[in-house]
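To close the section, here is one more complete example, presented without commentary so you can practise reading it yourself. The ligand is S-adenosylmethionine.
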Amino acid sequence: MQQVRREAYGEDIGQHSWVTAEELREDVSRLGLSPASRLLDLGCGPAGPLTFVVGLAGCRGTGLDLSASAIAAGRARAASLRLDRLVSLRRADLNEPLPFAVGAFDAVMSLDVILHLRDPAAIIREVARVLTGGGRFLLTDAGVITGPISDEEVRLRSIHGYTRFVPPGFNERALEVAGLRLIDGEDRTASALKIAGGRLAARLAHRAQLEPLEGSARFERQRQYLETVIDLSRRGTLSRRMYLAEPYPPR
Ligand SMILES: C[S@@+](CC[C@H](N)C(=O)[O-])C[C@H]1O[C@@H](n2cnc3c(N)ncnc32)[C@H](O)[C@@H]1O
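Output:
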């Protein structure tokens, strides 16, 4: 599996999303993190990107995820990187209010998670609440519909549970309504295309080892999923967008 990941991601930072190490390094430089900063990662998964950022900035990091196994894997990862003193992970459902006080964090990130949440505007409001005045929010959404999509493509793209797609401008408006000013926004579909292509090629190259491990049905489902992501990305039908925002100064 490590070999498949290396071949798929190039620089493997333990991500379970479409974020590349290159992209994250650049975005993080704009979060203004210092060793005194408190960073929150919403939907951290097994904490690959979170430990990467904490390792770069030396800040403290808190991660939330619904999956107990992802949290356990994330704790093991933080310990193996000797970052367990700085990283704290807990299980939480992001469809509920965040278990933190007003202004508890200097920066918040959420990478390719919002498309799995039932009320994207509600989580953005929660981010605005827990962020300090001068804080920053880095969000990526791989579910922005920018072209015609069929019901079959929606089904194949939604194998990881509840998935919700939004029109262009939806997240920008939700940020604005929550009191967060958009500083930057960029199309990051190329990263999804690169990673999905890498994952598909690596999985097909190691099919003989993977299929007995995971079963033919799961192998096939993953193949169709990755092919769908590649096709939708190439056609410009489903886009992945990055948003960098900060609270408006108080009036
Ligand atoms: C595509 S993965 C991204 C993980 C991580 N951000 C990364 O970049 O590696 C999406 C994550 O969202 C989490 N997730 C989905 N629904 C959630 C919910 N309602 N509450 C908390 N986490 C959720 C999943 O468990 C999964 O770890």
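Once you have examined the tokens, check your reading against these statements. The chain has a mean pLDDT of 97. The chain has one domain: 2-247.
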